Amino acid sequence: MIEWISQPWPWYVAGPLIVFVMFIMLWFGKQLGVSSSFRTACAMTGAGKYIPFFDLKWREQMWNIMFVVGIFLGGFIGGNLLSDGQPLEVAPQTLQDLSEVGISAPGHDLVPLEIFSWEQLFTLRTLVFLVIGGFLIGFGTRWAGGCTSGHAIMGLSNLQLPSLIAVIGFFIGGLLMTHVLFPFLLQL
Amino acid sequence: MLNIIKFLIAGTLFGLVLTKSEVISWYRIQEMFRFQSFHMYGIIGSAVILGSIVVQVIKKLGMKSMDGKDISLAPKDMSITRYLVGGALFGMGWAMTGSCPGPLYAHVGYGYTVMIVAIISAIAGTMLYGALRDKLPH
Asked: Which pLDDT value is given to residue A107?
């Protein structure tokens, strides 16, 4: 059993399990969403004194902080207790395309360590990918009112047109970054 | 207390699914944005199809939440600018870090602790949005 669940989970297992989480969140009285945790974090700093958008009773929003602490725990369990230690299998064409822009194959890692590691933190490339990348996630998700979980999963499941527009936006940004900007940014 | 623990448990399951299905992999996100693997499309697609059925059933049955309240599924306000432009900015960050917000937290738990830098930046980005909110088109 442990060996079986330690293998990578296929899409047809992951998709329904995500829906199960969405369903229990609705049963708990909340809509699935992760990016709202950033707003709660801002409110917890006391920023509400200066910025009305963060003037909220953050104690009532503690559920989304607990939810992301859970995600952290899930990452720990998945990466350390339920890991089969096999190398990541990536589509050969993707590996070839990435090697042309200087990114090596993953080996046992989920991310390219030549960008995402503490050793590389103070290189220009890593600072751009982590700091600007993270900043765009925080700014963009709040402007768009949600991220992949809130719009692509919860919003599309609710057949909301705004969420479809948001998901189209996600892809415009992601495709632009991958196909137009990556060849330059990865050279930094 | 139970009120808080139940979200911790739901989050743990969510984080475990994102991790074990490799949604948190930078390489999987690159496969997706290069249209070279079905994996991410399979996950999002199957979740949306099944999720929309679940939401319709909840609405038809008038299901209540565990504390007896109506389940709120009010649609978001209509706009194009905020969703398209805000969404595109997020999409760029998604491709760069290979993470949407959920996976950022999972990465830290997995052991890629440097992702804390991206989380702090995301909080800073949210802070700037809050400060500029009245000046941005919605």
From this structure: 84
Look at residue A48 in the predicted model and tell me its pLDDT: 94
Asked if pLDDT for residue A6 goes beyond 90, the answer is: no
Q: How many domains does chain A have?
A: 1
In a domain, residue A95? The reply is no
CB B11 within 8 A of CB A66: yes
- The answer to whether residue A188 neighbours chain B at the CB level (below 8 Å) is no
Domain boundaries, chain B: 2-37+74-135
List the domain range (segments joined by +) for residue A67. Answer: 1-85
Confidence (pLDDT) at A86: 86
Q: Which of B84, B112, B125 sits opposite A116 (nearest CB)?
A: B112
Q: Which of B71, B73, B84 sits opposite A165 (nearest CB)?
A: B84
